Task: structure prediction
Amino acid sequence: MKEAAAKEENQQVLRVLEALKQASHELQSNPRPNLADANSSAIKVLLELETEADTILSNDPYLLTLSHHLTNLKTIIDTLQRSRGHYDLRSFLIRRVSTQEISRVAGSIESEIQAWIDRESIENLIRTLNRSSPPSSSFNEDTLIDLIDQFVDRIAQGFNRELQDLILKSKVFSELESVLCGSNFSKEVREKAAFAIAELIRFNKDVFVGQVLMGKTIRALISIASLSSFKVLCLLIKSIKSPLVDEIESNGEIPNIIIFLSAEDLSLRIMTMDCVLEIGYFGRKEAIDAMIMADLVKKLVELQRSELGGDLIDMGKSDDETEKRGVSAGGVGTEGKGTGESKERRFLQSHPFASCVARFAVQLEVGEGLRQSEKRAFKMEILKRVREASVSDAEAATIFAEEYYSY
Result:
């Protein structure tokens, strides 16, 4: 009963604060003297809410500063009102200074309100996470999902030092990782936690990357083995680069990733291919060795041979001949149409594994993880394994030609 009453009181405060925030935001954008008119919507809302807020906000120590700002704003507006109708230099200066002060105080009001909302949101998220570990019979999964979505939306707005301090003090990362690793939670909840962790890395990589590398996030993402979890894994590889690939390799997870190139779910196969290409770009010698030893080249040759594979080099020849004739395959003139690059992109959309051997080899060649001598050695190893995996000399020759053409 008490909890329900407290929740209703918080909702009442939140409604008042949201109205104040909107009004103060409008006032910052346009604090001209004529807005001090009683009919000004932003001024009117702020003055009306100042009285209501005085009683509502006085019970919360975190909102005392906000109350002071509101009182200060009312005083500035009164001063501005009294100067209206006077055209001497003193009155002009009062209006000029008061307008600037209105904008400044309105900004302070908005910041204080956002800080309160952030604090309440994170505390609510932590309370819900704590109650759901492990999930009880009263656990509401939809509520937790909504709270995680709200948290992700908030940190996606960009870095904020006060918000970061709240996140660190509340140990949000650890709670999210517990959900991600918790087998008692549904896949959807775990995936939501994964995206929140990825967003924290974008929020401030320097602060949160260590927690990813030292924790169980990577293993959990691979064990979930879904499109969403591998998408997050790919995002983390792009963000953290070689150190994350080093961690994947040291945990022995490279073969566990490669195996999903054979997954029944096509979307998971495609996302795994993206992960493989990112690992190829950022991976050091040990990671690439692990990929080769996991029969990656053989799997890539098989994928390239499949209906969703194909050869981009052949497509390029066909396009050249078509452009010379001035018509496309469908008989439509090609003049003024897309470039070869856009045609290649369209072909890859319908054939995601086209030229995947050459694409992987190119990632190694242009990537950041290998020395030049290592790149040459891996190129020879890939060619050797292509020859072993090919069903004919013609297939091997086409793949060799693509690699040469790509370089």
Q: What stands out?
A: Confidence is low (pLDDT under 50) at residues 35-39, 317-338.
